[in-house]
Amino acid sequence: MSEPLTGGCHCGQVRWTLTSDPMWGGHCQCTNCQKFSGGGHASNIVAAKADFDVSGDMSSYEYDADSGNHMTRYACGNCASPIYGESSGNPKGVVIRVGSMDDPAGFAPKAVLFVGSGHAWDTVDSGLPTFPGMPQR
Ligand SMILES: [Zn+2]
Ligand SMILES: [Zn+2]
């Protein structure tokens, strides 16, 4: 595999390391991601929880998604930067915010999800496949 990915929050209190390659990466325009990002979409990588090591004081927020999955979102307890999330639908995975990476330039998005709730002003890479909701796996 390539070098471990590293990242953290804006104030530097939260730090993370991922020692395996991400399984997937993409943009999501669902209404939850709009709220949590404060923008038109969130950009995420999905990775193995067992290979994700995170340290620092974080706040968490839990809710039930429309899919029926129970979601937990983690953010820095000091500067409130979103860091990652977990879903009961993928207990062995974590969804890490690309903006928290030390080098987000290395992000390789594969698709745009939930374009049905995206906005005309939120233009994301038009060369990527789009899905109206969550793609079937
Ligand atoms: Zn912070
Ligand atoms: Zn979303």
SSE layout and pairings?
Layout: E1 5-8, E2 15-18, E3 24-28, H1 31-37, E4 42-48, E5 52-55, E6 58-64, E7 70-76, E8 82-87, E9 93-97, E10 112-113
Parallel strand pairs: 3-10
Antiparallel strand pairs: 1-2, 2-5, 3-4, 4-9, 6-7, 7-8, 8-9
The count of strands amounts to 10
Count structural domains: 1
The computed structural class is: mainly beta
Shape: globular
User: What is the string of SSEs from the N terminus onward?
Assistant: EEEHEEEEEEE
Description:
The structure is a single chain. The protein has a single domain (5-117), classed as Metal Binding Protein, Guanine Nucleotide Exchange Factor, Chain A. The radius of gyration is 14 Å and the shape is globular. The protein has one helix at 31-37; strands at residues 5-8, 15-18, 24-28, 42-48, 52-55, 58-64, 70-76, 82-87, 93-97, 112-113. The chain is built from one helix and ten strands. The strands form two sheets. The protein has a seven-stranded mixed sheet. Strands 1-2-5 form a three-stranded antiparallel sheet, with no helix packed on it. The longest helix is centred in the first third of the chain and has 7 residues, at 31-37. β6 and β7 (70-76) form a beta hairpin. The chain has 137 residues and is mainly beta.
